[in-house]
Amino acid sequence: MKTTLELLSEHGFHGTPISLIAQHAGVGAGTIYRYFSNKEELINELFKAIKRDIIKAMLHDYREEGTYKERFKHLWRNMLRFFMDRPKDFQFIEQYRYAPYMSNLTREESFMILSPIMMFFIESKRAKAMKDLPLYTIIALLYGPIVSLLKQHIDNNQTLTNERIDQAVEACWDAVRYRQSD
Amino acid sequence: MKTTLELLSEHGFHGTPISLIAQHAGVGAGTIYRYFSNKEELINELFKAIKRDIIKAMLHDYREEGTYKERFKHLWRNMLRFFMDRPKDFQFIEQYRYAPYMSNLTREESFMILSPIMMFFIESKRAKAMKDLPLYTIIALLYGPIVSLLKQHIDNNQTLTNERIDQAVEACWDAVRYRQSD
Amino acid sequence: MKTTLELLSEHGFHGTPISLIAQHAGVGAGTIYRYFSNKEELINELFKAIKRDIIKAMLHDYREEGTYKERFKHLWRNMLRFFMDRPKDFQFIEQYRYAPYMSNLTREESFMILSPIMMFFIESKRAKAMKDLPLYTIIALLYGPIVSLLKQHIDNNQTLTNERIDQAVEACWDAVRYRQSD
Amino acid sequence: MKTTLELLSEHGFHGTPISLIAQHAGVGAGTIYRYFSNKEELINELFKAIKRDIIKAMLHDYREEGTYKERFKHLWRNMLRFFMDRPKDFQFIEQYRYAPYMSNLTREESFMILSPIMMFFIESKRAKAMKDLPLYTIIALLYGPIVSLLKQHIDNNQTLTNERIDQAVEACWDAVRYRQSD
DNA sequence: AATGAATGAGATTTCATTCAT
DNA sequence: GATGAATGAAATCTCATTCAT
Fold it and tell me: pLDDT in tens for each of the 182 residues of chain A?
């Protein structure tokens, strides 16, 4: 799966024949089919594995104490950092997120594991720390910019300095925070 | 190109052989090669054409008068509306944006045509209507949520009502607006 | 289809890859797929074509006049001769007759074209020239020995001389003829 | 070998990988190769084993006393019954009888074991109970209809009732019996 | 200029067989 | 002796591209 990620993120789905994956992984092509029933399944499994890593990374060092803003910034930064550290994972996730061969099951499962984050949003709204926006709108306002920033960072040479990250996380908080709150 | 968009956005790159495009378009397969030197070029051209349409749509009914907030909201809404009206264009752009066969030339060109929008951002910053953020950060803060909202709308059945759009555009403005300004 | 018959009758289904058929036929492998959607269809079509030839051959020079015995012998001999002249067709038909990939449609269609022969049997029974046996029993009593004789002739070097053929057709007639009749 | 028969008669040669046989038989795939040097040999051995069973079944309850007709009918019925009881064996024998990978050795050996039956035919001819036909012709006249009737029974839903069997065996006897004899 | 039949390289996948455990 | 994971050759089939008409 590591090899698959490497090759897929760089060359795309049809630039990456199974034979190439097998060769780079140092196994026979047939061997891959003992563990994944076809190419699609291999990719779906990779997708799910990365999603699990993301959640783990977001919750890393996360503590229930602190202000909502602090907790928010922690989660947001963790996610950005995760993908900055693993640009191939990001490229892969973004490329296959809505590809036609990404099974609905995979999408749903990847949604379920997001629930701890969701809980934080719900709690923040209830505590009037965040605006009373639909959950999905909040996600869009926070995840959208992360994706865009990362694309610039990885593909466009718009390096994400600490300063830029600080500015961006503040701006994102401004987007969702309750008018009076901080 | 219309047929190409239709098929590509629905079936993806693999699911759309040239022969199918030719058949749906009511021309011979060979004919396509008189106008595009290969499949990649066809897709690149389609990409650029849509980008041009986007800019045109954003600037539709745009006027230099009015507050910065008003002008911002106009541009932002126009873009969202454009893609809501033409979901296939959105799906296509998002799917092929960073595909390995998308030539750098195409990316650059598509960037250039964004310049009128850039101008507005620069001006807004100078006038202290917007925070003094790097241009790219602003783009990420505004375009990112649009993409996310549209994906939810199109793929996840999270319909974009007028209310949700109003809330989102306000939140986006909060993200970039200068603290005191409106 | 001629090449397919040649190779298939000699080397069997999996001794005959499409690539070999293409090469022997002097066409590209892909070309075969323009005319047959897969290997199975190619074989089914071949099967049906041969069946049509058999019926044509059986009815060759057949006339409604003459005694039932004479007419019977004519049909029986024609079928035997047909396969003696085209041993590959025989080998093919016998090999694929009940293969799992022989579609039911093909079987049914091949049955329909047998109807003129059936008519003769029905008429013979009514005229008390043949025993009053179920139609299928009559077919078994006449077609069965033909198959066995041909297998011996083709595979076992038991050459079918005119004498052997004459003896066999007489014996077959004895099997089905009405006791008193001739 | 029991499992092999089961799977092979139902799914055919391609549809039956060694791995499937091993799994259904509850042994490791490698184990099969300790007893048979390859897939072909496994099938050849199965073929020979069934042939031995057929002969045993034909001679079951066979007695040298009684008229030739009675003895003939006994042998003929036994064979038909054997295959009616074990349709998989029939399907297998008929499917692989002339397959290209059926070794000549197997064919010859399977022929040898037929000798007791041959003896009966030779004796019957000498006693003017049967027509003086070549041995192979007699076999064709008797075995051919058996095969055809069984195919109808098994594949075409033309059930072999006792009545149909009685009619058929009488007709077969008519085919080979000496004109005056009974 | 338009066509679409032909091509064959290359992709995915299967499976008989081996061999270290 | 039994196992079954690993293998990679080979099979089927697809499709971007060419080129004679």
Answer: 999 999 998 888 888 999 999 999 999 999 999 999 999 999 999 998 998 888 888 888 888 888 999 999 999 999 999 999 999 999 898 888 766 566 565 556 656 667 778 889 999 999 999 999 999 999 999 999 999 999 999 887 789 999 999 999 999 999 999 976 55
Sign (positive or negative) of CA dihedral D161, D167, D173, D176: negative
The CATH code of the domain that includes C4 is 1.10.10.60
Contact D180, D131 (CB under 8 A): no
Predicted confidence (pLDDT) per residue in C164-181, tens digit: 999 999 999 999 999 765
Q: Which chains contact B through at least 3 pairs of Cβ atoms less than 8 Å apart?
A: A
Q: For residue B181, is it within any domain?
A: no
Are C139 and C125 part of one and the same domain?
yes
Q: Are C79 and C18 in the same domain?
A: no
Which residues on adjacent β-strands are paired with residue A177?
Answer: A130
Give the global pTM.
Answer: 0.83
Q: Is D105 among the domain residues?
A: yes
Question: Is-contact C42 C103, C-beta < 8 A?
Answer: no
Query: Cβ of D167 < 7 Å from strand F?
Result: no
More confident: D33 or D106: D33
Question: Lowest-confidence range among D91-95, D101-105, D171-175?
Answer: D101-105
Contact (CB, 8 A) for A79 and A54: yes
- Which stretches in chain C have pLDDT values below 50? none
Nearest one of B21, C174, C149 to D131, comparing CA atoms: C174
Q: What percent of chain B has pLDDT over 90?
A: 65
Kindly report the bases of strand F lying within 7 A of a protein C-beta atom: 1-20
Same domain, yes or no, for C16 and C77? no
- Average confidence (pLDDT) over B117-133: 93
How do the residues of chain D divide into helix, strand and coil, expressed in percent and rounded to 5? 70, 0, 25
Same domain, B11 and B74: no
Q: Which residues of D touch C98 (CB under 8 A)?
A: 91, 94-95, 151, 155
Is the Cα torsion angle C86, C90, C95, C100 positive or negative in sign? positive
C18 and C45 assigned to the same domain: no
CATH number at residue B158: 1.10.357.10
On whether the CB atoms of residues C149 and C90 are closer than 8 A, the answer is no
Q: Within this chain, do residues C136 and C109 fall inside the same structural domain, yes or no?
A: yes
- Residue entry with tokens 């909040």: A138
Count of the separate structural domains present in chain C: 2
Residues 6+ apart with CB under 8 A from C88: C5, C6, C9, C10
Residue type, D125: K
Q: What amino acid occupies position C121?
A: F
In a domain, B5, yes or no: yes
Domain co-membership, C4 together with C60: no
What separation in angstroms does the CA of D180 have from each of A39, A154, D127, D128, D174? Answer: 74, 100, 12, 9, 11
Place of tokens 């080998």: C91
Question: What tokens appear for B181 in the block?
Answer: 């300004």
Confirm whether D158 is domain-assigned: yes
Please tell me the distance from the alpha carbon of residue D140 to that of residue D152, in angstroms, as a whole number.
18
D52 has a chain C CB within 8 A of its CB:
no
Range of the domain at A129: 40-176
Q: Which nucleotide comes closest to C23 if you measure CA to C1'?
A: E8
CB contact under 8 A, D144 and C149: yes
Cα A41 from Cα B70, distance rounded (Å): 48
pLDDT at residue D62 in the model: 85
DSSP per residue over D57-71, as a string? Answer: HHTTT--S-S-HHHH
Q: Are residues D57 and D137 in the same domain?
A: yes
